[in-house]
Amino acid sequence: MRQFAASSPPVPPQPWPAGAAPPAAARWLESGFLRVAEQLALDEALLEEAHAGRLTVPVVRTWVAAEPTVVVGSSSRIDDEVDRGACGRAGARIVRRPSGGLTVVLGPGCVMWSVVAPLPPESSLPIDRLHAALLDPLAAALVAAGRPVVRRGSSDLAVCDPGGERKVSGNALRVRRGAVLYHGTLLDDFDLALVSRLLRHPPREPDYRAGRDHASFLANLALGRAALDAAVRRAFAARELHTDWLTDQVAGLVRDRYESSAWTERTG
After folding, report:
1. How many domains does the chain have?
2. How many angstroms separate the Cα of 53 from the Cα of each of 13, 57, 181, 216, 250?
3. Whole domain around residue 33: which residue ranges?
């Protein structure tokens, strides 16, 4: 069984000060090409490793779906957020992730980013502090890359365009004792019209959306994959490169959950 291998001795977990990014000794994980179900399973497998105390430094990674895929939140009601008929016509599969939040559409031109990090066992950080700790450094890195990005709502990143603030990143988290999974989208060169075709207007929205439809609310960063990877690595000081990942755990989660209709069709 391949495990997530460290090239140096484990670093003890460090507490997060208010508003700070995770500890500096992060690892950058490249897992190669995986299907969306496998990518979601890998996020959960890494979270379980951190929860169990076997992952003691943050793991940071990015990936891109090879084809259009609709990813619903862990408690989303599919028919409230997704047009199933449109998904069928577009050949877009519907899958469910382990974190909360509303539905997103993935595919070429949409970069997914993930951070799995240990938390001190005795800590109980408020959710708003976790959002700030993960999104503030990423927003700063994207600003340094040349885009006027700001944090908006509870877990969005938006660009300040002349026509107003438009969303470029939606994010979600799952917290377990001693660990957090934070992941989300970075729209870069995505077919934004596809979102309008596959998704209904969301059942809830941040104030800054102001009722706008998908087409007028979303925007692309137009930075390119290499620049986005560099920004994510810079935001979380992910310097060590690793390629080993939890293949057996991922295979089990895909079989039992992420390719199971019972998991995908559940309503909460």
Report:
1. 1
2. 9, 10, 14, 44, 18
3. 26-264
Q: How far apart are CA 60 and CA 182, in angstroms?
A: 10
Name the E strands within the chain.
26-29, 59-64, 69-72, 93-96, 104-106, 110-118, 149-152, 156-161, 164-176, 179-187, 238-242
Report the C-alpha gap between 179 and 56 in whole angstroms. Answer: 9
Residue 217 lies in a domain: yes
Assigned domain for 211 exists: yes
Q: What is the pLDDT of residue 7?
A: 36
Condensed to tens digits (0 to 9), the pLDDT of residues 219-244 reads: 999 999 999 999 999 999 998 999 98
Tell me whether residue 14 is in a domain: no
Q: Each residue of 62-95: pLDDT tens digit?
A: 999 999 999 999 999 999 999 999 999 999 999 9
The predicted model gives 187-193 an average pLDDT of 98
Whichever domain contains 36, its CATH number is 3.30.930.10
Please determine, for residue 268, whether its predicted confidence score (pLDDT) is greater than 70. no
For residue 23, the number of C-alpha atoms closer than 13 Å in the C-beta half-sphere is 20
Give me the pLDDT at residue 8, please: 35
User: Angle at Cα 112 formed by Cα 108 and Cα 115, nearest 5°?
Assistant: 165
